[in-house]
Amino acid sequence: KPSPFCFLDEVDAPLDDVNVVRFSRLITSLSYDSQFILITHNKKTMEIGDLLYGVTMEEPGISKTVSVEFQEAKSLLPD
Q1: What is the pLDDT of residue 28?
Q2: 39, 46, 43: which is closest to 11 by C-alpha?
Q3: Is beta strand 51-59 parallel, antiparallel or unpaired with respect to 62-69?
Q4: Which of 41, 45, 47, 71 has its CA 20 to 30 A from that of 10?
């Protein structure tokens, strides 16, 4: 029985672009049975997500979170 969710913290950091694509395909295939929470700085890895949370610091010492739901964002783009 698969785990209900997996938490991965920057596991793609040492990978080159070719292996990031392979990693992304693996996560996508496994995501049918489990949910994944990924911490990453890699844009290619971010592209496979359904929802993206970002943390930024506009002022020193004050963090701000932003979120984007990709399906909703795509619907806002012009055809």
Answers
A1: 96
A2: 39
A3: antiparallel
A4: 71
Q: Which residues pair with 46 in a beta bridge?
A: none
74-to-16, 50, 51, 70, 79 alpha-carbon distances in Å: 28, 11, 12, 6, 10
Q: Which CATH number fits domain 5-76: 3.30.420.40, 3.40.50.300, 3.40.1390.10, 3.30.930.10?
A: 3.40.50.300
* Kind plus residue range of the DSSP H or E element containing 71: helix 70-76
Residue 20: CB atoms within 10 A of its CB come to 19
Phi, psi of 50 (to 5 degrees): -90, -30
Show the tokens assigned to 34.
């489990």
Task: Please give the model's pTM, rounded to 2 decimal places.
Answer: 0.79
